[in-house]
Amino acid sequence: MAMASLYRRTLPSPPAIDFASSEGKQLFLEAIQSGTMEGFFKLISYFQTQSEPAYCGLASLAMVLNALAIDPGRKWKGPWRWFDESMLDCCEPLEKVKETGISFGKLVCLAHCAGAKVEAFRTSQSTIHDFRKYVIACSTSDSCHVISSYHRGTFNQTGAGHFSPIGGYHAGKDMALILDVARFKYPPHWVPLTLLWEAMNTVDGASGLPRGFMLISRLHRAPALLYTLSCRHESWMSIAKYFVDDVPRLLKSEDVKDIKNILSVILSSVPNHFREFITWIAEVRRQEEDGSKSLSQEEKERLAIKEEVLKQVQEISLYKHVTDFLSSEKSCHKTIITRTENEDNLPDIAARVCCQGAGLLSGMSGSSQLFCCQETGVKCFKVNGEKPVTVVSGTVVNGSDQQGVDVLVPSSQSELSCCGSGLTSYVGMYPASNDVLTVLLLALPPETWSGIKEEKILQEACGLFSTENLPTLLQEEVLHLRGQLQLLKRCVDNTVEDDLGAPLF
Question: Can you identify the CATH homologous superfamily of domain 17-218?
Answer without folding.
Answer: Phytochelatin synthase, N-terminal domain (3.90.70.30)
